[in-house]
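yo, endopeptidase La is done. seq:
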Amino acid sequence: MRNKFYTRSFLIVAVMILLSSFYYLPYYVSKPGMAKELEPIIEVENGYEEKGSFMLTTVRMGRANIYAYVTAKLSKYQELYPVEDIRAENETDEEYNVRQLHLMASSKLAAIETAYKKAGIPINYHYNGVYVLNVMPDMPAHGKLQAGDRIFKVNGKEFESSDEFISTVSEKQEGDEITLTYKRQDQTKETTITLKTLQETGKPGVGITLVDDKEVEVDPAVNIESDEIGGPSAGLMFSLEIYNQLIKEDLTRGYQIAGTGTINKEGTVGRIGGIEQKIVAADKAGAEIFFAPNENGAEASNYKAAAATAKDIETDMKIVPVDTFDDAVEYLRNLD
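structure:
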């Protein structure tokens, strides 16, 4: 009887553990990810080789179940964030993932612009329409469009940019119908939507957040295979790797160089999240130098948090503050 009792109790506990692992709390948990060499995933046609390497750094982010929550509470370099700090209001998981992948795409675009401009190589643009980032609830597009749809025609007429799309729709009146042609998973579809005045702008719209779908055309060509990595934080390191393949001079000087930071087409480096976890990941990967956003010396800058973490884990990795792409290039050119 006692053996049966223990067996039954064990099974009940096992089932409870299994079921609770599928119960998610209203938190996201982030933990140190990886530091990944960029040369294998970025290829400039006939680009120059390098002796060292540039590395992007990542964090692992996911919804927290009970065990992930407890582990994060007990771990020094795991962080918990309320859902509303990660996802926009009324944003679904699918829309969040689409937004992260688009941020990565925008990051790659800005990195290419920055690197080719620095190398003095002209850039041309090709517009393909607009991407839907999310759909507002209780608005005309709800239930008709989805995050990730690419709209390229309004009433049968092709357009290029988000400005052109907004201008075309704004000329209509509330209650007017428009037909949108869009692509979803390589299938071309159409939907007719009745316009409604948007509270935010006072102008008629369909109720979507959108962004340009554009491509850069450069010679030599460049290809970036970022797989399913999301977010904009690899922009700085992308731009350094691309630029290094475009020029004869090897900026790596044989060093293992990690870093993080957004980049815009002007080459300004911006703040990112999870800097502490990225320092841990870079140290484990053997990085010798780490570029961190300086934010013009702000009191709570990424750089200061990175330097504090580096001191705490007693790494020999050099933490370097940067405000611009040029700051990073100048530092590398002064290395032995």
